[in-house]
Design goal:
Blueprint lengths: L2 E2 L12 E4 L12 E4 L3 E9 L14 H18 L7 E9 L3 H15 L6 E6 L9 E10 L1
Helix pairs in contact: 1-2
Amino acid sequence: MNGTTGARADGATGAAVRLVRAPALCDAPYAYASTVDRDARLIFLAGACPLDEAGSVTPIGDYAGQASRCIDNLTAALGAAGAAIEDVVSTRVLVASSERSDLGIVWDVVHHAFGEHDVPSTLLGVTVLGYEHQLVEIEAVAAVVG
């Protein structure tokens, strides 16, 4: 099903982003593509890391907790750029693990945070991430009108 994103907390809609379903592909828990209106302003976010206000990785050793912290930091960066999670066009979720179950734990947190705005996403297991004790990082691109 094709559709636009839902309403944002401030009452605006993420009308610049449209999620695209591909009927020929399996019914995945995410859109296979997204489009952005031509008058949209693109926002490219650095990877959201599980850093607290002091710049320390937290919580250490906790995939779900680090994914939640990444979502919080991603949401804050989006807000600073004049966007919300409903304006995200795509994500790349990096997990420092070779265990599929660890990737699943992180994906559950990310999927829950995005709710019905199930943007195209890539979930990757990687060897190591930039900060000591870092297990999760989430990259995103967003688009807003104006």
